[in-house]
Specification:
Blueprint: H1 3-11, H2 18-33, E1 39-42, H3 48-59, E2 64-68, H4 98-108, E3 114-118, H5 121-127, E4 132-137, H6 143-153, E5 157-165, H7 178-188, E6 192-198, E7 201-206
Parallel strand pairs: 1-2, 1-4, 2-3, 4-5
Antiparallel strand pairs: 5-7, 6-7
Helix pairs in contact: 1-3, 2-3, 5-6
The structure holds S-adenosyl-L-homocysteine and magnesium ion.
Amino acid sequence: MDDALLISARAAKGFMPDDEGLALHAAGGVAAAAGLGPLMEIGTYCGKSAIYLGAAARDAGTVLFTVDHHRGSEENQAGWEHHDTSLVDPATGRMDTLPTFRRTLEASGLEPHVIAVIGGSTTVATYWTTPLALLFIDGGHAHDVAWADYRAWSPKVAEGGYLAIHDVFEDPADGGRPPYELWCDAVSSRGWTEVSATGSLRVLQRLERLDEPER
Ligand code: SAH
Ligand code: MG
């Protein structure tokens, strides 16, 4: 990865250890080079992972779309473990990560290659029809939110495209269950095969497009 972008990514506020970010960048690079479509991230926050993925998109001549309502997940709200008071809009008292993301993206130089989509992820999915080279799921980690993202977005990955899931912890002592459940569902289904695992990042590839059975 480009040295300047790596410095930007490491400096950005967020939840992406460097080894996992580099693995994400590598997966994004392979996916983008396959020419199957753009990259898609669910869960922008302040743009840390978007730099790792956006660098890959830029190098392959495609773009990263990154979806977030910028109001924070349940776990980012006041009183929760991942709350950051510097991300509260003083005018309203609500979380707003968009200004910080905009500054991070501008400083990185990736503005032409990373496109922010501001809104609820399943609402955006309802109207999204472009096949994806890579889908990165890192939005809300509550059970219903994570499953809704997976159900709404994973069918949009192109044949031969990739699905990356963050915060997959086999041991419940290390973190919440939902991302691990999504990964279990994908690896046990006929349509996906595991490609790599780095820390809590799992990458799968869609082998062939099959109609998913109703769950
Ligand atoms: N990828 C980021 C971390 C994402 S944190 C990084 O590398 O640092 C999860 C993000 O998902 C939060 O910013 C939150 O606002 C967003 N989010 C949670 N539920 C959402 C939903 N239903 N629609 C859109 N965004 C959502
Ligand atoms: Mg995460």
